[in-house]
Amino acid sequence: MESSKFTAARSDLSPDSWDTHVHVFDASIGPFAPDRSYTPARATAQQLLDFNSSLTQATPLNIVLVQPSPYGSDNTVLLRSMKSLREGGSRIVRGIAVMDIENISDASLMELHEAGVRGLRINKQADGKSTDLESLKETILQTASRIQYLPGWKIQLFCAPAMWEGETHFQLESEIEQRLKNETDLYDTIAALPVQVIADHVGGMRALSKLQLNAATSRLDDPTKQPGFEALIKLARASRVIVKLSGFYRLSDRTESGCDDMEPIAKALVEAVPHRLVWGSDWPHTGEGKDRVNRGLEAVEEFREIDDVRIIQNMRRWVEDEKAWMGLMVHNPAGFYA
């Protein structure tokens, strides 16, 4: 058995819990895409099993393996790793793939479904570049139209937080401003989709330690008032969005304290939409898109050292209600990824 440095201290998670956001990077079973935005270090399926098992001190958690951007739309590593995870002891393994939706057949999509894939990912944060909103909307609509007939399939979206806003959440001064707003938000698009959307990494909602670094949000004293948060909750209440509590270290600068300033955001979500939440570790903790803009592909991006157990322990304190906690960790994901 391959040893792993990616382990964690005891967190006392139930063995029935789900980790809904993890990656495998293993060039030995599939090449990276030539047009990738970064070259990650190695993180194998066995190391993932070791990490997940360490969170329960027992069997590995149920796992949702997410296709990371360095592999583009070649899901070879994803599918082979899903098989390895099952063989290694994970009871339920699901996948979120990435596909060129215009060039895949219905038969190929069904093959992915039979392999355990339950959705497609659209990631607009990996390369640190700006996002063309109209292009993103078109991609979302095309993806939804193709996957809507596949049982349980969803779109997993990683985008900037303000993109969730809808026109009803703004006081605009003129008809021109209103028209511009309608052209730059995703709210109405997502609300009308025939499939549900999974909001990666808390929909991008940032803690105060991150908000204060940005001139546009530096005066906020309540992170639940940041652009996009109200709209995200409204979409979740309408059963259009599932919010993934993951990647806290991307949203907070207080990693040494387990990202404790994410507490107001987490508590607000648990109070408003406990039935629409899932958790993910985001193992093995890759870097930031903004740091990759001028970095060559020959440079290997090492993973960040994150205290996952402390984050989980913080979350357990924030989610005081036992029913809400079991929903977050066990029952909600079991239903969403059936």
Secondary structure: elements and pairs:
Blueprint: E1 18-22, E2 39-40, H1 45-56, E3 62-66, H2 76-87, E4 93-97, H3 106-114, E5 117-123, H4 133-147, E6 154-158, H5 175-182, H6 187-191, E7 197-199, H7 208-211, H8 229-237, E8 241-245, H9 248-251, H10 263-272, E9 277-279, E10 300-301, H11 308-318, H12 322-336
Parallel strand pairs: 1-3, 2-10, 3-4, 4-5, 5-6, 6-7, 7-8, 8-9
Task: Please provide a written account of the structure.
The chain has 338 residues and is of the alpha/beta class. The protein has a single domain, classed as TIM Barrel, CATH 3.20.20. The chain is built from twelve helices and ten strands. Helix 1 packs across helix 2. The relative contact order is 0.15. The N terminus is likely disordered.
| Unreliable residue stretches | 1-9, 167-183
Shape: globular
Sheet of most strands = 8 strands, parallel
Q: Determine the N-to-C terminus distance.
A: 30 Å
Return the structural class.
alpha/beta
Total beta-strand segments: 10
- Number of helical elements: 12
Give me the CATH architecture, please: Alpha-Beta Barrel
Report the CATH C-level class: Alpha Beta
- The helicity comes to 25-40%
Provide the descriptors you would attach to this structure in a database record.
single chain; 338 residues; alpha/beta; TIM Barrel; eight-stranded parallel β-sheet; two-stranded parallel ribbon; 12 helices; 10 strands; globular; Amidohydrolase-related domain-containing protein; hydrolase activity
